[in-house]
């Protein structure tokens, strides 16, 4: 995954620190019409979004977290690095 991130860094908007990373990720989710709670990550170290390629990433301190979406009673896990790309 790191190599994927590295190849998108050049023209990406990158922020560091949990508070600003959470804010930017929620803004992006809203902009894309996705639910704000889709990425309930913890202790986010870095958020990056390359608008030119549609690639985004988030790096959290923990290697993996689990989260239960109560409304749908579904538990999911997120890796330490979460990446996504618009098709």
From TrEMBL:
<protein>
    <submittedName>
        <fullName>Uncharacterized protein</fullName>
    </submittedName>
</protein>
<dbReference type="InterPro" id="IPR036758">
    <property type="entry name" value="At5g01610-like"/>
</dbReference>
<dbReference type="InterPro" id="IPR007493">
    <property type="entry name" value="DUF538"/>
</dbReference>
<dbReference type="Pfam" id="PF04398">
    <property type="entry name" value="DUF538"/>
</dbReference>
């Amino acid at each position: 995954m790191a190599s994927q991130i590295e190849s998108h860094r050049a023209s990406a908007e990158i922020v560091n620190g949990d508070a600003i990373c959470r804010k930017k990720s929620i803004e992006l989710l809203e902009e894309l019409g996705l639910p704000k709670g889709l990425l309930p990550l913890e202790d986010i170290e870095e958020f990056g979004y390359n608008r030119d390629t549609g690639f985004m990433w988030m790096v959290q301190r923990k290697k993996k977290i689990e989260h239960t979406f109560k409304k749908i009673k579904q538990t999911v896990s997120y890796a330490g690095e979460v990446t996504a790309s618009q098709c």
